[in-house]
Amino acid sequence: MKGIINALDINASVRDEKQQNPFWILVRKEIAGHIRSWRFVILLVLVVLTFWGATAVAMNNIKDTVAKVKDLETLFLYLKILTTTEGTLPPFHVFLNFLGPLLGISLGFDAINSEQQNGTLTRIMAQPIYRDNLLLSKFVSSLLLVGTLLLSLSLLMIGGGMLITGVMIEIEELIRILCFIVLCTVYVGFWLGLSILLSIVFKQASTSALTAIGVWLFFTVFYQIVVNMVVTMLTSGSGELSQLQVMHLNEMILNFLRLAPSQLYADATTTLLMPSVRSLGPVTMEQMAGAIPSPLSIRDSLMIVWPQLTGLIAATLLCFAFSYYLFMRREIRT
Fold this sequence. Notes:
Layout lengths: L1 H18 L2 H14 L2 H23 L1 H6 L9 H7 L8 H17 L4 H6 L1 H6 L5 H35 L5 H31 L3 H31 L7 H15 L3 H13 L11 H4 L9 H31 L6
């Protein structure tokens, strides 16, 4: 009788394994591989240390920041923890502008070419799974890791702030922090999609990593210099500019700068974490006339950052679409 029961249990477990979605099996495999790798552990330590340092600096200066607030109803204590600095260390969202691309690149620069170099790609494709499930699982698993990491750090910040200050978080602050987590995940997702695309284009993992880092350095360091040089060349012989021409020129410079993902991320995070920010472009005195000096609601802030968010999402989907096209047409047996 026991033998029959054991046989039935074995058959039931086999049926359950067959009924499991192969996509989520691949996602669990990728997550386990990332967690066990030293590369992810080192990056995790860097992100946690920067978060701890920025939060500690903000906590030490939170009394002076709160004392400057005239209306306690618009205090937004937990948003100030994420944005307050004394000059020694930048806020955490500024740190993420530099660490986010490195995190995305490190998780995806060898996603495909290392599998093919090690000979495991043909073994995986020999299993009864779709080819696009492999590519999608590498993208989704990395995004789940990044989102879980940022959510955990934010919850630790909120819990620590409640224990130290004794102030409960407001619903609007919580929504803004959650939107900030989604925005950071999308920003890292763009660099992840770009690095996965380069891992398909190049056969060597070192080449794809150097190319991704070169693209990041160009947009972070050199892109603003190039834009300023081009604008200076275009306006060098135009003489003295009027106020309207200066505004149009500044708007044109901002539009060119917003082609960089880092600028989109900086604009969106500034608006989400600082409700007092009412505009991301140049504002005339006529537009400021009659404006009430009060913080924006979460709905108004989301309306301002919606173009930046959709731009990051579109760039991420474009990179993944190119990756999908190239990977589905690629010969993997050689």
